[in-house]
Amino acid sequence: MGFAFRKGTKLAHAFQAAVNRLIEDGTYDRILKKWGTRASAIDGSRISPPEIKD
């Protein structure tokens, strides 16, 4: 899953920091557990990560 932002916006970095904070303090895991989606967990937020090919 991902979020789209205009290229070059400072909002992308703020959003990345917020997501990483949720991961670090355990909130992210609690949200995934509540909704039964832990299999889709990420270990950190990335800006423009490379595509994963199957």
Give a quick precis of the structure.
The protein is mainly alpha-helical and 54 residues long. It has helices at 10-25, 27-35.
What does this structure look like?
The chain is mainly α. The protein has helices at residues 10-25, 27-35. The mean pLDDT is 88.
Write the element-wise H/E pattern from the N-terminal end onward: HH
Radius of gyration over alpha carbons?
12 Å
The tally of helices reads 2
Shape: globular
How many beta-strand elements? 0
Strand content: under 5%
Instruction: Characterize the largest beta sheet: strand count, sense, and whether it forms a barrel.
Output: none
Content-based structural category: mainly alpha
Compute the separation of the termini in Å: 16 Å
Average pLDDT number = 88
Low-confidence stretches: none
Roughly how much helix do the residues carry, as a percent range?
Answer: 40-55%
